[in-house]
């Protein structure tokens, strides 16, 4: 019986010792110490591995500008935008006031 | 070429990676009930200043082929249809169509 009665206090010391040895936080009262936020692994690095890596022409151009690579599709796109602007079909200016925006004009 | 939703997801993943350590530190302070409430509140206010694309919950596994957000098999980063197409084309190692040729049970109708 004696051994059984002594068990809780012994368990306490054992837990404390275990926490010291394995460097975990000793928290006998189960307080919210926020230790779980420090304990859990960082998830960012594995998140970055989800999508397979792709290399675009723009990336190569940014990495080594000395190669002077011409991205023809991009050049054509920019030329088209310029052309559209010249014909007065460019993107509209950003609305300064709320009344100027197309969305609010539609409502009225 | 990735679609806009995938690009947004990549942006969120980058944000999480960059801000994870500082966010964790603030979370630790804010959720620690042994610290004074004033300090915890300050930490919570700091947490609120982080942008939308720094929270890990904004990250969603999408299909790397089509950008679809539902029915994704995370191991292959593909949606169910793309998974089927690729598996049937033999582009996924170790995946083949299940068939049962051992037992040919008679079919009673």
Walkthrough of the structure:
Chain A: It is found in: Mitochondrion. Chain A: Keywords: Mitochondrion, Ribonucleoprotein, Ribosomal protein. Chain A: It holds the Pfam family MRP-S33. Chain A: One of its GO terms (cellular component) is mitochondrion. The complex is a heterodimer of chains A (108) and B (109). In chain A, 54% of the residues lie in helices and 0% in strands. Chain A has helices at residues 2-5, 7-22, 35-39, 44-48, 57-63, 72-86, 102-107. With 109 residues, chain B is mainly α. Chain B has one domain: Helix Hairpins. Helices cover 46% and strands 4% of the residues of chain B. Chain B is built from three helices and two strands; from the N terminus they run ααββα. Chain B has helices at 4-31, 37-49, 80-88, and strands spanning 72-73, 78-79. Chain B has a two-stranded antiparallel ribbon with strand order 1-2. In chain B, α1 runs antiparallel to α2. At the A-B interface, α3 and α4 of A face α1 of B.
Strands side by side in the biggest sheet of chain B: 1-2
Counting helices, strands and paired strands, the structural category of chain A is mainly alpha
How does the major sheet of chain A shape up? none
Percent helix of chain A:
40-55%
Query: Largest protein interface?
Result: A-B, 17 and 25 residues
Please tally the helical runs of chain B, counting DSSP H or I stretches of 4 or more residues.
3
Task: Look up the CATH topology of chain B.
Answer: Helix Hairpins
Structural class of chain B: mainly alpha
DSSP helical segment count of chain A = 7
Strand content of chain B: under 5%
Mean pLDDT of chain B: 91
Q: Low-confidence parts of chain B lasting 5 or more residues at pLDDT below 50?
A: none
